[in-house]
Design brief:
By secondary structure, the protein is an alpha/beta fold. It has helices at 22-35, 44-49, 68-80, 104-109, 115-118, 123-131, 152-170, 192-201, 233-240, 245-252, and strands spanning 4-5, 19-20, 37-38, 58-59, 61-65, 85-89, 135-139, 177-179, 204-210, 222-224. 37% of the residues lie in helices and 14% in strands.
Length: 260
């Protein structure tokens, strides 16, 4: 799981930038391409269920929020390594200028960084991602609301409106997967009601719960492993092979102030 892939030369001691630099990102993808099999998220369930002849771990790459730097920085690397990936866009934010409304870091630092660090892709850039041959698109909701603050109707609308927009703009084949904003079931951001609303509209959904997906995983609560800016190739290998004990401890300490 990634969010932002951008060149940022400072650290905010209060707000997380959810960023991996382009240089580190390229090392991550090179490492994964070397020892793992990078597969489209849409195929992960069938691939996990099949009898496999190789012991290579299966890895699906996902990017939340749909930042413009996904198109400018991440896609060229994905093409270089022929690495399929899914970008989850917030449909009401696509094409808007300035920092995304839910991104406090971008709102604070928009004057300190290049525009593409903070803004969403526009529809032309999203379509260009699809034309790259390595990208599929999914929904990250319509307005990126917190599930803890939504009524049942709002949860339904977040799923249904985003699917409708994606299907109309990009075709029904790009309106099948969903990533819950904030995404953590333990902190209450993904409730059974939210899962039910998404299940009515989509065929697969990912959360931010830490873990390795298996053939027994719930199709609408697929766990993910976050890639960090300080992850070296050894850490990336360990994460991709399910060595997660230290990260489970950190996950238990995560608070409801999660940014995005």
């Amino acid at each position: 799981m990634y969010h932002r892939v951008a060149s940022i030369d400072f650290v905010d001691p209060v707000l997380d930038d959810w960023n991996v630099s382009p240089e580190v990102f390229e090392r991550h993808i090179a490492t994964l391409a070397d020892f793992a099999e990078i597969v489209p998220l849409a195929s992960i369930e069938s691939r996990l269920s099949e009898e496999r002849k190789t012991q290579k771990p299966l890895v699906a790459l996902t990017f939340d929020d749909g930042y413009a730097n996904f198109f400018t920085e991440a896609v060229p690397v994905l093409q270089q390594y022929n690495a399929p990936a899914t970008v989850f866009v917030v449909t009401d934010s696509v094409g808007k200028t300035g920092p995304l409304g839910f991104d406090a870091w971008s709102q604070k630092h928009q004057e300190d960084v290049a525009e593409d660090v903070c803004r969403s892709m526009n529809w032309g850039e999203v379509e260009a991602c699809l034309d790259s041959g390595v990208v599929t698109v999914g929904s990250h909701s319509h307005r990126h609301l917190k599930g803890t603050e939504c009524s049942a109707q709002q949860l339904h609308d977040e799923a249904a409106l985003s699917r409708e927009v994606l299907a109309e703009r990009l075709g029904a084949e790009n309106a099948t997967m969903y990533a819950y904003p904030y995404g953590c079931t333990r902190l209450g951001f993904v409730t059974p009601e939210y899962v039910g609303a998404v299940r009515e509209q989509f065929s697969l959904a990912v959360c931010t719960d830490l873990g390795v997906a298996t053939a027994e995983s719930d199709s609408f609560l697929l766990p993910r492993i976050e890639a960090h800016a300080l992850d070296d190739p050894g850490v990336i290998r360990a994460k991709a092979t399910g060595t997660l004990a230290p990260y489970y401890l950190v996950e238990r300490l995560r608070r409801k102030k999660r940014a995005i």
